[in-house]
User: Fold this.
Amino acid sequence: MSTQAKTRSSQPWLHQHSAEIQKFGTVRQFPVGLSAEARLYSSERLNQILADTQILYALYKKHHWLMRGATFYQLHLLLDKHAEEQNKLIDAIAERIQTLGGIAVGDPRHVAEFTRIPRPPNGAEEPPAMLSRLLEAHETILIDAHDAAKRTADQGDDGTNDLIVSEVIRTGELQAWFLAEHLVDTPLVHA
Assistant:
């Protein structure tokens, strides 16, 4: 053993590299009372919801920054609140995938390849278009989440079903309602 190996140091070990120890799209064996097939299926469904939710979060932040007009302040705050709620969902979904022995999609480049949410223009849109884009993203996620909740329950994965129903669906439906009410055609001031 070298002298350097015996000496304690606070120097960080920089430039570390490793072989991939688990491939994306696989699950490790975890003692959670579910078959490998059920855990793999749930991980795959959750990864789709996770990728789409990460894009929805990014859209909320973008639209929060770019909001304009008479309702700027209210929408600026609402979109930021919704973004933070989506951010909490991202963590919960990713942790569930890891609990199932899977690998959560996390790299933004991988998320961009995985998502089904259409890419918005790089520039700013009018507020109703931004709100409509958020609603469409919610609906994409909600349609998938309803199907995934049923199918994961059929596989006996109550934990994933509970996460999808109690958090993904309920949060998404509530946020969609708030957004949709901002698109109702009513005048700001009655004459």
Remarks:
- The helical segments are 3-6, 36-66, 72-99, 108-114, 127-154, 158-181.
